[in-house]
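Project standup — Tuesday

K.O.: blocked on the structure for the chain from last sprint. Re-posting the sequence here as requested.
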Amino acid sequence: MKTLYWKDNHLFIRDQTKLPAEVTYFECETYQDVIHTIKTLMVRGAPAIGVAAAFGMALAELAGEDLEKVAEEIKAARPTAVNLFWAVDRVLDAKSKGKSALDEALLMFDEDIQTNKTLGKYGAQVVEDGDTILTHCNAGALACVDYGTALGVIRAAVEEGKNISVVCDETRPVCQGARLSVFEMQEEGIPVKLIVDSAAGRLMQEGKIDKVIVGADRVARGGAANKIGSLMVALAAKRFNVPFYVAAPKSTFDEGISIYDVEIEERDPDEVLYFGDCRVAPEGTEVENPAFDIIPSDLITGIITEDGILDPI
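H.V.: unblocked you, prediction finished:
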């Protein structure tokens, strides 16, 4: 389930705004096209954004652009996911050592898949046969090049022969859980149920959830940043003694700062005012639409990485 691929010196990105109704790829011919896909959520998920950004640098290199200038433009596309900055800086560092941006982007493409599969194997150790796992937003193959982080753990557990069922929060306002995570699980024949975001606590209270596994857009000192709504899930998990795991590659770690210093992206009010093409609030309604939550470390049972399961930082 590749989220993106490189062909004939162009980058092709699966347009996630059209899933699950339509599977189509957007062709990026310039780095500006890549920025557009990141801003509009055609590509989303920290690892996928990072690799897409690296290929954006490669497109700029092929066009003879000033990579230092392009790097700042790409970094400005979205502020919260640290992989975006990490990937761009990694390409610049590779260039300073005589490598091409394209070679580095292709390397990152391959590394992402292997990293997720290794992470998944570590995460599968905490999953027991018969578990029902709740996940919030989409941290699957569609959030990476392939395989996924949180959903990668579920994939790995199923590959080991464990009988797993999944509960997906819808993840308003853009419904990545409903549109993307459910789509992925159905594609692979993994039992899945969809719930509204506000039902997660109720299911934990009833003992219907064994573990929570989510992804992260940044892990820093004091916690992790993940899709809005994650904090409420983590608080409910703490109250009802449900283990709460964050699955994230080490490229998502930003140990030099406090998680509370991370800039939280504020998105378009229309994402809240409309459900699809249908307006759901009166004219003149004021909106606050933060894209991410901060999950404090004391709510996190462990962080699943390609280096093993780590304590929160």
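K.O.: great, moving the ticket to review. The first strand starts at residue 4 and ends at 7. The chain has two domains: 4-114, 127-310.
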